[in-house]
Structures are given as structure tokens and as C-alpha cells.
From TrEMBL, chain A:
Originating gene: pdhA
Alphabetical keyword list: Oxidoreductase, Pyruvate, Thiamine pyrophosphate
Residue ranges of the region described as Disordered: 1-47
Residues of the Dehydrogenase E1 component domain: 62-333
Pfam families for this protein: E1_dh
Cofactors required: thiamine diphosphate
Annotated protein name in UniProt: Pyruvate dehydrogenase (Acetyl-transferring) E1 component subunit alpha
Species, as recorded: Streptomyces oryzae
From TrEMBL, chain B:
Domain Transketolase-like pyrimidine-binding intervals: 18-193
Pfam family of the protein (one): Transket_pyr
E.C. designation(s): 1.2.4.4
Keyword Repeat: no
Organism this protein belongs to: Streptomyces oryzae
Coiled coil stretches, renumbered: none
Record protein name field: 3-methyl-2-oxobutanoate dehydrogenase (2-methylpropanoyl-transferring)
Record SMART domains: Transket_pyr (SM00861)
UniProt keyword list: Oxidoreductase
Top-level lineage group: Bacteria
Cofactor field: thiamine diphosphate
Amino acid sequence: MTVLEQPGAYAPAPPPSWRPRTDAAPLLPDAEPYRVLGTPSGDREAAEPDAGLLRRLYAAVVHGRRFNEQATALTRQGRLAVYPSSRGQEACQVAAALALREQDWLFPSYRDTLAAVARGLDPVEVLSLLRGDWHHGYDSPATRVAPLCTPLATQLPHAVGLAHAARLKGDEVAALALVGDGGSSEGDFHEALNFAAVWQAPVVFLVQNNGFAISVPLAKQTAAPSLAHKGVGYGMPGRLVDGNDAVAVHEVLCEALARARSGGGPTLVEAVTYRLEAHTNADDATRYRTDSEVEAWRAHDPVTLLERELRSRGLLDEKAVQEAEEAAEEQAARLRERMHQDPPLDPAQLFAHVYAEPTPQLRDQADQLRAELAAGEETR
Amino acid sequence: MSTAVRQPAAAPAVRKPATMGQALRRALRDAMADDPDVHVFGEDVGTLGGVFRVTDGLAAEFGPDRCTDTPLAEAGILGTAVGMAMYGLRPVVEMQFDAFAYPGFEQLVSHVSRMRNRTRGGMPMPMTIRVPYGGGIGGVEHHSDSSEAYYMATPGLHVVTPATVADAYGLLRAAIASDDPVVFLEPKRLYWSKADWDPEQPEPVPGVGRAVVRRRGSSATLITYGPSVPVCLEAAEGAREDGAEGWDLEVIDLRSLVPFDEETVAASVRRTGRAVVVHESPGFAGPGGEIAARITERCFHYLEAPVLRVAGFDIPYPPPMLEQHHLPGVDRILDAVARLQWESGFTEHVGVGEGRRGGAV
């Protein structure tokens, strides 16, 4: 008889019970992206979209398309250092802006200039980063649009922290953070979603899955069933939506933002879309994708989808289309004209905002640059 | 920059031994009591009170929303702190150890340090990042780094480190009150150092950016900070008996690496004519190189010898059983002092502007 076989020497207890902490099933995305446009009215889950909303979305995507074209043209004219176009993604950009209430915050990436413009910001101020006259051109606290963020996914924890702070202060504020499919591979994506879920922060993450991170397709980016599936790992719902369907994106975001504001916690939304242009004006997309792939997505164009819906419901005629295009053209012309004026530059600003008070060393360097500039003036 | 140190009503001073850890804790407590926007968060800072117990009792006193345990993710801690600062809070975050702060570097370098500049002052980052740093506690790998050079090389950050119990309180209050991000480096091996200190009547400390002369001397200046300050003071005592005549060493505690107090350093070196910079951080591309260069630029005609450095070796931080060979100690400091060309004939005890060989100022 061994020691363990002696009666009473060792009373084995069952292992402590284990249960999943939340039910995973409700957090999982649907198998198909949610769509409204192009589906028969009878099949639609939600009520028919409001005519006023449809008109606002349409005007905004038409303007957005023209804005993208104009900004890309400005790179060729030497007026923008670079422009990462959101052509093809206008539905996401516009729906994101229009889903926000005034007190909500938007956290855009560098490809989301259009979302900021659609929110009503001055396009010249929004383009400051890409023009290169400063790193950032608009008043973030006043507009509640964070600076366009270049290091991928690093804006996501900012959105979580701001939303958390708002909740601590008792304000009914939600934050909407934009990121791409490539950004979802970054560590900050993971940390932000984890913090958001643990803190139940009022934040919504919109992943615009446009198919490519510069040249790398999604298949090389992730082995997940979909990016929306990543939500379940953090304990937040993942929603999958047709990113070229402005009505569907708007509806899903409004729902998620309302849930966030009312204390329901964060949501991960994956919008399936496509970047019709190259990564930036400096990129050559023909090296990594075929024309036929691009053509297939052109046939599912966000502007056309919306236009067709409005026409079929009798909300748009030839004259209204023309008016929308003329309005967009007018705004593009105004932008072009303003961007062709040289921006005011002040080298002294380089030292003015490094610290609240410049250090003695920075004062010396500011003096040095001032003296150099003065000497340059004299010799001219 | 204001320190905003609370001045309580006059009470009979009760000065009794307190540790640096206790003074830091008291500074956090008083800052939280004075300003509801001050939020402390990080790994294990809540229920446990931090692995060094610096946040002990804060969650109990102010609740879990003011002193918060976070998930174990340094980029997440710093990134959410950025968002909280955007909304007007004043986050005080703890990085558990020097080498565990590295995952947060991108947030620190790309956002915390630049947000004020990017937004032309529209979005300042009034944030304090507490980092226990340095060796000498027998820590295994990744627990003893001196990471100050990385932070110093990042424009937009202030870098501060206390060496005394009183400074621990005063500098942390000043850091939290600052409207700029402050990397607050806490010398781990001084957490248990003691001094007579009255928490009800803390000594006022000037804001971030001022050095202090810890010991007056005339022969040479030791310039140091944080964990090496007590070592340099000990070396200065030893120097009295060392050498043929004994050296009377001045010891400067920088307290703030950024901003760097050039005036205090230059005034001292002009008086003594000789300088040694002492720190644990590796010497190559370390703080001592910058300090030596600035002394040379500003005090060249007053110098009797090259500015020397006593620093950690240019090696990954050694295992605990070998760390005593790496850390600058009294003997290594005195060896450096002995190499300051004493035969050169510099006249001691002369005023600024005198004692140089050849030529006017």
C-alpha cells in the first residue's frame, strides 16, 4: 500500500470550476457584410432609410469623390507633399462623420482627411499635414477631431483614453476611431481594443478594410475569419458591414455609438471596401494588383450605389445630380485656389511649442536661427 | 514653471525619518487631493500599491477610478494617458521597471513628446511618467537599466530624477503640476533611503529644471544625479584624505536632465577648473557626453583638465552578481579625480574669470 492509497491521506478534490466569462456567440459578426443599398426593400432588416439622410449622404459622397480627385491633382501641382486617397472609400469616410453627434470625437488616420472635411472642418486646415506647412492644421479641442495620425493604430489608445476620461467625468461622449486593415496587425490595435473592453469605454473602432496595406493583401496580414471576428477575443461585439454602402455603414455606426454612449461598451466594426487608387500618389498599384480586380470594385462604387437608391426612390433626378456635382466642383475650385497660395511660414514657431516655456537651450537655438535669417536678409 | 506645492497651515514641525518611497507616495496623495483631474494608473498600482508600494493606499483613499490597475500593456497605458490628457485630465502613470517601459516608446516618442508641438500648444500633454530606474538592488535581467539617455534624446520631454527624500516629494509635485510631459525617473536603490522629513511641511523645491550644489568644494566639480549622488558625496568625503594634499570636491545634483541647468554647472566648473560627470548609464552616447561637451563649450578657458566621465560600461546591464563591477563606485570616481592633471599648476580658490593661464576673459 502506498502512502496515497492509505485512507484519508489524500482526498482528491475536483479542479476549481471553469466557465467562459461571457457568452461568445452574440459577439460574433454575421457571415455576410450587412447591406442596405442594392437589396430589395422587402428583405431589409431596418426601416427604410430616411430621405433626408439619403440626400445628405449623397451630397457628401459626391463632394468627397471630387475632393479626393482635387487633392490628388494638388500633389501633381506640387501643392501637397503627398496624398493618400480615400477614393472608393467615400462611403466609410462620410458615414463616419455623419454618424457622430456634436460632442463626439473622431480619431482619424492619415487616409481619413475626407472624414474630417465631411465633419465640416476647413479642408485647407485639414490638409496642413500633407501640405507640410505644419504637422496639424485645425483646432482639435474645438472641432473634436484628433490630429490625423500617421503611425498606424497609435491613435486607437488615444480614443480609448479620451472616451474613458469623458465617462469618468460623466459626459455623454463617444469616440470613433478609424484604422485600416494593415493597422489591425499593430500592437496598439490589440492594446487599445483590450483596454476599451476592460474599461467598457464608449468607443467604436471602424476598420476600413480596403484590401491592401500599401502592397500587402489582407491574406498576408491576418488568418482571422474576418477582422470583425477579432472583437470576440476582447469581449466586444464585431460587426461586418459593406463599406461601400454609406447607408449601412451609417446605420451600424449610429447603433454602435448609441450603445457606447449609453454605457454598453465598445464595438469593433469592419467595413469591407476597396482603395481604388494607389496607396499614395508616390505608389504604383499595378505592381501588386490586376486591373480586373479594380474593375470589379468599380462596379460596386459607393457613389453609384447611393445614386441608384435615390433615383429608384424618386429622390434624385438629372437636375439634382447636376446640382450636386456643380456644388462639389465649386468647392474643389475654391480649395484649389486657396491651396495655390503659399502658406504663411514662421520659423520662430519651430521653437514656440516644444514646451510650455522654452528651455534655455531652445532660446539659444531660436536666437541662432533668427540671426541666420537676419544675416540672410542683409546679404540678399 | 510653477511647483504648486501645497502649503498647509503652520503646525509644529515633526521631522522624523521618512524614506524616499514614502515621500513619493505622499506627493501622489497630496497631488490627487489637490486636483481631481490627477489620475494614477498602471500595472499593480491599485490593490497592491505598486511593486515598490509607492501607490500604497491611493486606491483605498481615492477609489479605483482615480488609482487604477490597468491591463499589462505599456503602450496601452501611455496611449490611453494621451487620450485622457486630451480630455483635460492630468495622468500620472507608472512604468513598473525601466526596461518594461520600452513597449511604450512609440507612444512616448511619437505622441506624448510631440502633441504640444504638433497642435501648436492646442493639446498640451500634462502627464507624468514614473519610471523606477537604475541598478544596485540585485535585480535580474531587465530590472536595472538606466534608460535616461533615450528620454533625453527625445525633444518635448522633461526628464527629472530625485536623489533625496525632500526632492522626491518636491520634484514629483512639480512634475505633476507641469503642463509638459515629465519622465520622472525614480532611483530604485534610493527608495529605502531615509532622511528627517516632515510631510506636513515639505521643503519647497523650485520647478523642474534647476540643479543644486549638494556639497561646496573648490578643487573639482562632480556632476551627477539620481542614484549616483550619494556615491559622489561619499567620494567627496573620501577625497579629503586622498591624494597628496586632499581634494575639496564640489558635488552638483542635476535633479533635472531636461531642462539642463547649464548655469549652475558652468558657474561651478569656472570656479573649480575641473569636472567629472558621474552616472550609471553607459558612457557612450550617454548623458555625460552631452554634459562634457557643454562644459567644454562654455568653460574651455577655465578648464585645467579634460572633462572626464565615470559611467557604466558600454555593456548590457550585468547580472546581479557582477553588477558591482559595472556601477560607478567611490574608488572609480576618485581614480578619475586623480587623473585631472593636478600637476598643471591651476590655482585653487580663485574667483570666476581668474586662474586661467594666458590672456583675458
